[in-house]
Write a structure and sequence with these properties.
about 350 residues; mainly alpha; elongated
Length: about 350
């Protein structure tokens, strides 16, 4: 008798997942991230993030144009500085370009607003769709108008949240905190510099935690509770702060050369947007694959079985010829038996 096959031994990843619950959670999150095409969504979000900067820059130029048109003395001082810094025909060309941009500030602002609104809505649609996919939801979107209105409300809320976050982060800057301590006469205490840096990082970490928790819980097309997303928001905030520190070192080293001045900010922005998008999507997948959220998710019914029935009408030519051959052989056999 052949020997019975030995059961297959579990691999090292299976043993680690069985031994450590946190490692099993990370692997579940990575599987959800890959199954829901997280890298594809992160690339799309990055593209429209960079693309939206151009209409926003147009709006910024238009705003500066409106401000300078009402202050001719400031405009004249800027033109004089340009002519002194860039002499010759090229300096005059720059001045004419600036004057043309100021004259067309209204059309420039309108085009920038329309382009920025369109790019922002597409960006928000990809972001909300990616977050919804990470939660394992495949919700059918409503009508075109209702979907765009919902995305517009989400875009405005994200803009307000980012502005508030930037404002609160600015309050936690070491320079501002040192100035506040100087008002109270505490700026000369020993070790106050290191304490301010630690306090600044903690303030930024707390603000990022609130922002990412709100994004993970409220931006998907199906709202979720903050409690189920708090740990994922903390994971995103810690990763984001580490990435910010590394990114500041990178930009500080890259921006010294001429190539870094030309391409460093653009590449830095693309890397920043891509890493941040991947971080938020992975944290969302981590929240969606936590035991409490997996238990709360409804079990999808299996797909209906498909039974294929093939029907043949009549007898084919091949079957008829075979039957005739068998009949002839049988008749020959019977006649031979009667003769003998």
């Amino acid at each position: 008798m052949p020997e019975s096959k030995q059961p297959k031994q579990p691999g090292i990843l299976d043993r680690l997942r069985a031994r450590y619950g946190w490692f099993d959670h990370v692997m579940r999150a990575q599987e959800r991230y890959d199954d829901c095409h997280g890298n594809f969504f992160a690339a799309a979000i990055t593209y429209f993030t960079v693309f939206a900067l151009f209409p926003l820059l147009m709006v910024g130029f238009a705003s500066v144009g409106f401000a300078l048109s009402r202050q001719p003395h400031v405009l004249a001082a800027i033109e004089d500085r340009i002519k002194h810094a860039v002499s010759g025909e090229f300096g005059d060309h720059l001045v004419r370009l600036m004057e043309a941009a100021i004259e067309s500030r209204t059309s420039l602002g309108i085009i920038g607003l329309v382009g920025g609104l369109w790019a922002g809505l597409v960006w928000m649609a990809y972001l909300r769709g990616a977050l919804t996919e990470m939660w394992g939801e495949h919700l059918k979107s409503g009508t075109f108008v209702t979907t765009k209105l919902s995305d517009l409300a989400a875009l405005l809320s994200v803009f307000v949240a980012i502005v508030v976050t930037i404002g609160l982060t600015a309050l936690g800057e070491p320079a501002l905190m040192a100035r506040v301590l100087a008002w109270f006469g505490l700026h000369q205490l020993p070790g106050i510099g290191a304490l301010l840096r630690v306090a600044s990082v903690l303030v930024a970490l707390g603000i990022s935690w609130l922002l990412f928790t709100w994004i993970i819980a409220r931006l998907p097309r199906k709202s979720l509770s903050f409690a189920s997303c708090a740990r994922a928001g903390l994971l995103s905030a810690v990763g984001f702060e580490i990435f910010k520190q590394v990114g500041s070192i990178y930009l500080g080293r890259v921006l010294h050369g001429p190539a870094g001045v030309a391409f460093g900010p653009a590449l830095g922005l693309m890397v920043f947007a891509y890493i941040t998008s991947r971080l938020v999507l992975f944290a969302t997948a981590w929240a969606a694959t936590s035991p409490e959220n997996l238990a709360a998710m409804p079990v999808q019914p299996p797909q209906p079985a498909v039974v294929v029935v093939r029907r043949r009408d009549g007898v084919g030519i091949g079957a008829a010829l075979a039957a005739m051959a068998l009949g002839a052989l049988a008749a020959l056999g019977v006649s031979w038996v009667r003769r003998h």
